[in-house]
Amino acid sequence: MNDIAVIGFAQSSHSEALVPVFEQALQDAGLGRREVDFWCSGSSDYLAGRAFSFVSAVDAIGAVPPISESHVEMDAAWALYEAYLKILAGEAETAVVYGFGRGTAGDLNRVLALQTDPYTVAPLWPDAISLAALQARLALEAGLFTEQDMADVAGGDLAHPYTATPLREHDVAPVADGASAVVLAARDRATRSRERPAWITGIAHRVDRQGFGERDLTTVPSATAAAVDAGLGPDVDVAALHAPFTHQELLLRRALGLGGGVRYLPNTGNAMFSGGLSRIGAAAAEIRSGRARTAVAHATSGPLLQQNLVCTLGGLS
Questions:
Q1: Fewer Cβ in 10 A, N or C end of the chain?
Q2: What would the CATH number be for the domain defined by 4-105+174-193?
């Protein structure tokens, strides 16, 4: 069984300029493009507005030499999971995982209604912020946290104007374009390329039911289950959570059992299909720089934290 590490990371606010992102990630990893055994991407043809949009993204890799490539129609954190299994199975020694999405091309909060239940919810066209506000209200009424807790996490104040009760402007991550890339390597290659790799000590993902009436929106059982399967323990220095709304970060902290001594990495925007992967890259960067011994990264997909991935990392293996 291979030990696998993150050895390179890069991100950009330009969703379709992938060549510089690849170059920066590979330079960070100390690898050449021809030394990559497997490429895996995460994006959405629907968001891009054209069929097989990921094929045009492959042009940024180069036509020669031929490559081994795959794609997932969701956040690239799940592409990283596929690449992780590829290396774990011994079918590759190195991999580049990348994600990209242009959320500002349309009304993202309205477009996201199409990922809800197609029979009972999607026909109502509920925007994502209004749905999140309902979830926040349920959590507040259940006493899981207060509006002051939300203000403390978001760095805002309670006097700020509302966007959708009880969410304020600073509770909603701005829609952003983005691309990111993470380089993975098996143990032998990782130790040759980098002095301090960020070892993946566990990774798992789980999904809850789609119907809003079929699950408790104030808990995140899929995140809790993924954390258990990833082996997340109490010794965590840094956490990078993928939460588009303030209250969702608070729900995730509870679901993952994170204590008060954890340092949380800020999430500055809601970059579709690269946001979750960037959280893994950011957590790994803390390990690789020596600023943390242990870290946990989280990615989410689907409405109201429906599907969650948890990745634990460490500096020593």
A1: N
A2: 3.40.47.10
Cα–Cα distance list, 264 to 71, 81, 227, 275 (Å): 30, 23, 17, 15
Least confident of 85-89, 99-103, 105-109: 105-109
Instruction: Select from 3, 5, 10, 4 the least CA-distant residue to 281.
Output: 10
Q: What is the CA radius of gyration of the chain?
A: 19
Q: How far is residue 108's CA from residue 92's CA, in Å, rounded to a whole number?
A: 36
Q: Taking 90 as the threshold, does the pLDDT of residue 158 lie above it? A: no
pLDDT at 163: 62
User: 267 near 275, Cβ under 8 Å?
Assistant: yes
CA 269 to chain centre: 12
Q: What dotted CATH number matches 198-314?
A: 3.40.47.10
Q: Bridge-partner residues for 308, per DSSP?
A: 206, 300
**In 3D, which of 294, 292, 171 has the Cα closest to residue 243?**
171
| Domain definitions of the chain by residue range | 4-105+174-193, 127-171, 198-314
Question: From the CB of residue 49, how many other CB atoms can be counted at a distance below 10 Å?
Answer: 11
**What pTM was estimated for this model as a whole?**
0.95
Ranges of H-type helices in the chain:
18-29, 45-48, 53-58, 76-88, 108-111, 128-141, 147-154, 187-193, 221-229, 246-256, 275-289
Work out the average pLDDT over 68-79. 95
pLDDT tens digits along 173-196: 999 999 999 999 999 999 988 889
**Residue range 280-295, pLDDT digits in tens:** 999 999 999 999 999 9
Instruction: Give Cβ neighbours of residue 126 (< 8 Å, ≥ 6 apart).
Output: 113, 116
Token pair in block for residue 296: 């946990």
Query: Is pLDDT above 90 for 305?
Result: yes
Return the bridge partners of 81, or none: none
Q: Stretch 111-120: mean pLDDT, rounded?
A: 91
Kindly give the interhelix angle for 275-289 and 76-88, rounded to the nearest 10 degrees.
Answer: 60
* 26 bridge partner residues: none
